[in-house]
What we know:
Layout: H1 2-22, H2 28-31, H3 34-44, E1 59-62, H4 68-78, H5 118-131, E2 138-143, H6 150-161, E3 167-173, E4 176-177, E5 180-181, H7 182-185, H8 191-197, E6 201-206, H9 210-222, E7 228-233, H10 256-265
Parallel strand pairs: 1-2, 2-3, 3-7, 6-7
Antiparallel strand pairs: 4-5
Amino acid sequence: MNNLVEKAKEIRRDIVNMITEAGSGHPGGSLSAVEILTYLYFKEMNVDPKNPKDENRDIFILSKGHAAPVLYATLAAKGYFPKDELGKLRKLGSMLQGHPDMERVPGVEMSTGSLGQGLSVANGIAMANKLDGKENRVYVLLGDGEVQEGQIWEASMASAHYKLDNLVAFLDYNGLQIDGPVDQVMASDPLADKWRAFNWNVIEIDGHDYEQIENAINEAKKVKGKPTMVIAKTIKGKGVSFMENQVGWHGVALKPDELERALEDLA
C-alpha cells in the first residue's frame, strides 16, 4: 500500500495548489475523500485513461460534486488529462469548472453539483449493466450533509428494490457541512441503522485506512441481492494540520502563506 500512500500525498498537494491558484473551491471535503478515490482508481477499478468510454469500464460518480478538486487531481494523476490543467481550476474557459462537467472532462461520468442526484444516476447505470449482462461495477461517493436530501432516500429504496448488488456507495462521513456539524444542522444518526432498514448491506470503516477500504470492497463483491453502503469515517481537511476537523475550511481557498504551511504538512 506504500504506493497508494505516496499517491494520496501527491493528490492532496495538487488539491491545495489548485484551490489556492483558483482563489476559491472546497478543500475540506476534497481532502477527506482522498484515500477512497486513490484506492478506487489506483487499485480497484477497471478503467483506462486512454479509452475513457470503454464499455467494460467500472464507473465512479462523485455525487458531492463540490469536492471536484479531489476528482480532478485523481483523474490527472491517473493520466486522463495533463496535470497542468489543474492550475486552470475555476477559470473562464477551463474544462475544470467548480463542479464536474461530463461533457468537457475525460473520466467524469456525471455532471454533479446539485446535491442528492448522484445515487439516482448510479442506480440507472447499475441497472443497465445488469440488464446487459455486464460485470461492470458502479461506485458513488456521497457526502454526510448530502444524505439529508430526500432524493437520496428515494434512490436508496430503488437500489434495494432492484437488488443492485453491483453498486457500492461510499459515505464520506467527516461530520461537518457548510453550516456546521452535521449533527447540529440536521442529525442523521444512527446512519448505519437507517441504511440497513432500507435493505442495504452496510459496512463501517475508517475511510483513511486502505486495508479497511479493500476489505469493504471485497465484502461487497460477495454480497448478492443487495447494494452495499460503506460508511467511511473521515477527517475533514485530512493531511493539513490546521484544516483538520475545521468547518471553516469547507469552501474557503488557502492564502499563499497557508499554502506553504499545507505543503510542509504534505511533504
